[in-house]
Amino acid sequence: MHVLFATAEIEPLVATGGLGAASAGLVGGLRRQGVLVTPVIPGYESWALTDEQVIPLDAPAWVGGAVARVGVVDGLGDVAVIDSPSLRRPHPYVDPETGSGWRDNDHRFFAWSAAVAALAVRLQPDVVHVNDWHAATVLAHLPESTPTVLSIHNLAHQGWGDAGWADALGRRGGRFRWMGSVNALAGAISMADRVVTVSPNYAAEIRTERCGMGLDGLLSSRGSDLVGILNGIDTGDWDPARDPALVAPYDAGTVAGKSDNQAALCGELGLDAGPGPLVVSVSRFDYQKGIDLIAEVSHLLVGVPVRLALLGSGDRDTEETMARVADMHRGRIAFRQGYDAALAHRMFAAGDLAIIPSRFEPCGLTQMQAMRYGTLPIVSDVGGLRDTVIDADSSSRAGTGIVMGEVSGAGIVDGVHRGARLVTNKARAARVRARAMGSDWSWDEPAKRYASLYDGLVPTSEPVVEKAVEKP
Ligand code: GLC
Predict the structure, then answer these.
(1) Which of 363, 367, 386, 450 has most ligand 1 atoms within 8 Å of its beta carbon, as the pocket-test mutant?
(2) 106-109, long-range: CB within 8 Å, 24+ apart, which pairs?
(3) Rounded to two decimals, what is the model's pTM?
(4) Pairwise CA distance, residues 373 & 282, whole Å
(5) What is the predicted pLDDT for the residue at 465?
(6) Cis before 56 (ω within 30)
(7) Whose CA is nearest to atom 12 of ligand 1?
(8) Is ligand 1 within 6 A of the CB of residue 289?
(9) Average pLDDT for residues 110-122, to the nearest whole number?
(10) Ligand 1 centroid vs 21 CA: distance in angstroms?
(11) d(CA 300, CA 296)
(12) pLDDT value at residue 460
């Protein structure tokens, strides 16, 4: 089984959010299942590959020239990078000067997708698996007989383009016409042999008008061809017993070691030693994630009482508000702007609780990272958060965290109150923590499910049965 896996992000080369981690995790998991996977990504930089081979590509003229470099990268393995002048940028999607998307993103990713399809013609994989809108128009160029899978990591980004693209996109470009424009995701949803999204609950939610972002009818029409497969996390990288970022590594049996990590983090971030539990948050700052709601009620949270440590960046207003709030509550609220992987690890090791108040969440990774580190998540009741966290107040036997009643400032205050009560009761907290740390969030199961999905798409040739030779 050979899969060409087209994604705009993959760790460790490029990641702006969960897509980079999920792509790397799934590719690794599939390879452990014996599936041959070639990830193919846009050449935002001139990454050095070992054993590099350059493959010229027969892409349409408007692509403006593209070659594939195929080689090996440390920590990832085999990869193909598409080089084309328009792809080379300091950030995959956003102009750092203005904070808005590059104006030619439609051209950039449609061109990359055309080049990926040309690579597929050269490599003849058994399955082409495309991720999110960036790779969706690969399907416009492929022969109908090529088995295809589309993964939706986030329905909020659909890849709208001018109607004129329908003709440029190739023999099946017309399938991408949508509401008088071109919509990359809509086209691929209608064309892919299977559509996967990253949690079962999100797969159900997006069939409804409330969560379908205009594509619910189309998604529903795919019936059982649309499935939810929960993401995993890299349990090697996220292992509190072997984490080089921690002052005091620990496991479920030595979980008291968390307090040393908490003391160290409070020193590092200038937080007081009390009062109340430490609540952490590591997130992109955008509407989806609801971090603005935390800022709104921060004065009430300090009164619970809890201390707050936040790491994140994105929406500039939220960044500024957070900085101001942290300034007002020195010692009780700390905010670090940006993303720092080692600091994220230290925060999940140090926290008593983690808060994830997303307005919608296809899967979410940090709730799983938090649980693995024995930090109990307080989550909104949406998407993959619902699939991964069980409310400890509703289920004393199975609870692994707190599920908020509503996504709002009031919902957050209530959730944090309940979380603080939970971790203050030491015996109860220990039981819930043991369950959270004992859950399996590895990519093994998800990768098996993807592998069998691929198997179902590839016609198997008759097995060659050797005739038994009778012994003389
Ligand atoms: C996107 C989604 C997030 C998901 C990630 C990986 O970032 O917003 O919920 O976990 O993709 O699939």
Answers:
(1) 363
(2) 106/159, 106/160, 106/161, 106/162, 106/165, 108/42, 109/8, 109/42, 109/133, 109/134, 109/135, 109/137, 109/159, 109/184
(3) 0.95
(4) 14
(5) 57
(6) no
(7) 153
(8) no
(9) 97
(10) 9
(11) 9
(12) 74
202 CA: nearest ligand 1 atom: 9
The protein residue with its alpha carbon nearest to ligand 1, atom 5, reads: 18
Q: Does position 471 have pLDDT exceeding 80, yes or no?
A: no
Q: How confident is the model at residue 461 (pLDDT cuts 50, 70, 90)?
A: low
| Paired tokens of 238 | 């996220």
Residue 186's identity, in one-letter code, is: A
Q: Ligand 1 pocket test: pick from 7, 153, 379 the residue with the most ligand atoms within 8 Å of its Cβ.
A: 153
Rounded to the nearest 5 degrees, what angle is found at the Cα of 419, between the Cα atoms of 298 and 443?
A: 105
Cα 155 to ligand 1 centroid, rounded to whole Å:
10
Whole-number pLDDT of residue 469? 54
pLDDT in tens, 174-227: 999 999 999 999 999 999 999 999 999 999 999 999 999 999 999 999 999 999
pLDDT digits (tens, 9 = 90+) for 383-421: 999 999 999 999 999 999 999 999 999 999 999 999 999
Q: Could you tell me the distance, in angstroms and rounded to a whole number, from the CA of residue 470 to the centre of ligand 1?
A: 58
pLDDT above 60: residue 463? no
Please identify, by atom number, the ligand 1 atom nearest to the C-alpha of residue 384. Answer: 9
Q: Which domains does the chain have, with CATH numbers?
A: 2-232+443-457 (3.40.50.2000), 257-438 (3.40.50.2000)
19 Cβ closer than 6 Å to some ligand 1 atom: yes
What is the distance in A from the centroid of ligand 1 to the CA of 154? 6
Q: Read off φ and ψ for residue 283, nearest 5 degrees.
A: -160, 155
What is the pLDDT of the chain when averaged over all its residues?
Answer: 96
